[in-house]
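Onboarding guide, step 5: your first structure request.
Type a short instruction followed by the sequence, for example:

Predict the 3D structure of this protein.
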Amino acid sequence: MTAHIERLIQQLDDSTGPSYDARAELIDIGSDAIPAVIDGLPSLGGFGQQTAIEVFEEVGDPHCGPALIGLLTSDNPTVREWAAMALASLDIDGAVEPLRRAYRACLERATPPDWTEPGGIRWALTELGARTPVVPPLTAHLRATAANDAPGWPLARFPEIINDLADHAQVILYSQFWRVDAGRTYGVSGTGLDWELDWSAPWEHLVEESRTWSLLEASEAPVGDNIFVAPTWIDRTDLYPKR
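The system replies with structure tokens like these:
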């Protein structure tokens, strides 16, 4: 069995097809395979390590925690991002400080805060209770009055949300649009607007720039009573975290 598991682990790197079957079989083996997957991580490339992270998450064995923490310093940004999110999904003890260090490393590399890696780490810190997003009162109220299964806020209230967030010094990074139809949720193409903020600018400038762009996006957003919007925003402390 040990030799078989080792062969499966090496197949995790093969994106032409074998990785999918190897992943499924390792998940089926379960916790008995986890020590060998951990030992095999250094021999895998980025794709294989990402697939190994999926195995860790599906098996749900907390023994993979130290290995996931180690992947936070990988040279591959996707591996770092996936490891961060897996640490939160598995509720790994001791993950908060390594995640904070990983987030500071993102900022030191000048990774824009709206890229997926810092976004994934912020999500992980939030899930672990180490980050509390700022949700102004009006934004919270409008969210609470939406349907329980709504994927965000009613599109008609989007301008109010934008101004409420900006008035409370929050920077909107981007927004996603969703359509709810017959109880199912579908992604909706946005306006096509693609803005880039100058992250070297003062925070107050970033707030107003994101307000301007978001209001423009709201004016060009898809129309419909069943359209919802889910903006993603950050606070000043996300750009200038305390050490």
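Each response can be followed by summary notes, for example: The mean pLDDT is 92.
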